[in-house]
């Protein structure tokens, strides 16, 4: 879209809109078709991320019970599992669906109440609008 963008995290409606957190438009009858498409694509991307974490936890089940290692070791352990997982995925190492039996999809912690509007960043709306335009220019999918 002619403007360089930095990376963003995907959030849901409870997070404040920031230039580094993308969240969907508030669902109501006034949403335009392109805003609905943006929300749809954001939800699809979020589900891809959830599936990736589910596969990571299923393949490396030590991540489900890291309570027996020191806090100093934990970041290294998680990083090692992520690297090994990506190597396995990149080389089409078979994924055993039975591994999923021990891993329940868990809700990640998030705010209970929507963030107040005062926490929202006005520049963030420009980022969301650019993403909305980009999704519209990509067509359906």
From TrEMBL:
GO terms for cellular component: nucleus. GO terms for molecular function: hydrolase activity; metal ion binding; nuclease activity. The keyword Electron transport does not apply. Keywords: Hydrolase, Metal-binding, Nuclease, Nucleus. It holds the Pfam family DDE_Tnp_4. Its cofactor is a divalent metal cation. It comes from the Eukaryota. Its main location: nucleus. Belongs to the HARBI1 family. This is ALP1 protein. It comes from Rhipidura dahli.
